[in-house]
């Protein structure tokens, strides 16, 4: 089944308060068809609240959610594959019948539901468990069933709340593969995660949220370059302050190795010469901050 969405997911200006707590303020982003969007933020930042509003589990105080160019409604929501953070399976129901039931609830015929259940349980490595109650499975395998439940009706949009938490490395690989594959089919994929190296690897764009607001949004590489270039220099005999005043050096951290924040016009050879003038240089590496460092900067700045 192919996606019918002509435009992706648009989240515009969501506000949500719980009593005195502003859980979301003007939350705005979009996820294009075929795009993988990573939603990252500290505990309590507002990721699950945003996802619940997209799914209609919670109502926003202000703002709107569109999918395929129209305001999202109960029909379009039926086409969303959702993996809720609190998970949502029937523990006392067997894996296979449960998946068939959920697929039928999302509009598949009996034979389609059986066929898609067979496909996804096989693909996710739980085919031998279809006759077991969900509650009898390990937490990681329950999570695979939860992913199967989100995928079994060939959704037009995927919203996955911390899909990687608690998975073993093999299951992480399968989950990653599935996310990339669904996006390649044109499905917009929104997922939240605290595993930033996975987010960096899988996502076309990321949104970093803190205290209910979007604080940084863009392609990982763009955000990394905007985070500034740095030079890490291992010059053990260099005294503190050796790079102060060199053109293009914005700031310096003189610890065991020297880390210089530099601008785009810096002359790395001039900096290297200055380092060599202090004694031997064992390392001279240009770096951009990774997503984990960016995340720390964004979150500690609020
Ligand atoms: N039903 C609710 N009633 C009251 N407060 C709530 C409710 N749901 C969420 N909150 C609060 O709203 C804030 C945002 O929570 P949310 O679960 O969206 O964060 P999150 O980014 O998903 O965090 P985590 O990474 O820990 O899952 C938190 O302070 C949370 O305590």
Residue stretches low in confidence (pLDDT < 50, at least 5 long) are: 1-5
Rg, Å, rounded: 24 Å
Ligand identities: adenosine-5'-triphosphate
If helices are DSSP runs of H or I spanning 4 or more residues, what is the number of helices?
10
Tell me the CATH architecture of the largest domain. Answer: 3-Layer(aba) Sandwich
Tally of separate domains: 2
What does this protein look like?
β9 (205-210) and β10 form a beta hairpin. With 302 residues, this protein is an alpha/beta fold. The protein folds into two domains: 9-224, P-loop containing nucleotide triphosphate hydrolases (Rossmann fold, 3-Layer(aba) Sandwich), CATH 3.40.50; 227-300, 2-Layer Sandwich (Alpha-Beta Plaits), CATH 3.30.70. The chain has ten helices and 14 strands. The longest helix is centred in the middle third of the chain and has 16 residues, at 169-184. α3 crosses α4 (110-123). Keywords: ATP-binding, Nucleotide-binding, Transport. Belongs to the ABC transporter superfamily. It comes from Gordonia malaquae NBRC 108250. Residues 9-236 form the ABC transporter domain.
Features:
302 residues; alpha/beta; Rossmann fold; Alpha-Beta Plaits; six-stranded mixed sheet; 10 helices; 27% strand; elongated; disordered N terminus; binds adenosine-5'-triphosphate
Short summary:
The protein is an alpha/beta fold and 302 residues long.
Detail the topology: elements first, then pairings.
Layout: E1 9-18, E2 21-31, E3 36-41, H1 47-55, E4 62-67, E5 70-71, H2 74-77, E6 80-83, H3 95-105, H4 110-123, H5 139-151, E7 157-161, H6 169-184, E8 189-192, H7 196-202, E9 205-210, E10 213-219, H8 220-226, E11 229-234, E12 249-254, E13 258-262, H9 268-276, E14 283-287, H10 291-300
Parallel strand pairs: 3-8, 3-9, 6-7, 7-8
Antiparallel strand pairs: 1-2, 1-4, 4-5, 9-10, 11-13, 11-14, 12-13
Helix pairs in contact: 3-4
The chain binds adenosine-5'-triphosphate (ATP).
Residues 18, 21, 23, 41, 43-49, 85 line the site of adenosine-5'-triphosphate.
């Amino acid at each position: 089944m192919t996606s019918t969405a002509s435009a992706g997911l648009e989240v515009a200006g969501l506000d949500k308060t719980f009593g005195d707590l502003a859980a979301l303020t003007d939350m705005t982003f979009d996820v294009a068809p075929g795009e993988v969007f990573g939603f990252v933020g500290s505990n309590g930042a507002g990721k699950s609240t945003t996802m619940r509003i997209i799914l209609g589990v919670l109502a926003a105080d202000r703002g709107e959610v569109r999918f395929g160019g129209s305001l999202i409604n109960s029909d379009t929501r039926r086409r969303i594959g959702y993996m809720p953070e609190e998970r949502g399976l029937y523990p006392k129901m067997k894996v296979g019948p449960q998946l068939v039931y959920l697929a039928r609830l999302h509009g598949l015929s009996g034979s389609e539901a059986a066929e898609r259940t067979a496909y996804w349980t096989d693909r996710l490595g739980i085919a031998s468990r279809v006759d077991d109650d969900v509650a009898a499975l390990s937490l990681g395998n329950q999570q695979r069933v939860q992913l199967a439940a989100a995928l079994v009706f060939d959704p037009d949009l995927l919203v996955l709340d911390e899909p990687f938490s608690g998975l073993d490395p093999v299951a992480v690989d399968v989950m990653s593969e599935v996310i990339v594959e669904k996006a390649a089919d044109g499905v917009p994929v929104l997922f939240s995660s605290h595993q930033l190296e996975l987010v960096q690897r899988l996502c076309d764009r990321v949104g970093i949220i803190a205290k209910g607001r979007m604080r940084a949004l863009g392609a990982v590489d763009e955000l990394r370059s905007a985070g500034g270039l740095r030079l890490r220099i291992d010059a053990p005999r260099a005294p503190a302050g050796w790079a102060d005043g060199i053109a293009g050096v914005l700031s310096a951290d003189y610890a065991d190795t020297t880390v210089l924040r530099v601008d785009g016009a810096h002359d790395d050879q001039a900096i290297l010469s200055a380092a060599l003038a202090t004694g031997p240089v064992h390392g001279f590496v240009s770096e951009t901050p990774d997503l984990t460092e960016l995340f720390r900067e964004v979150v500690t700045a609020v």
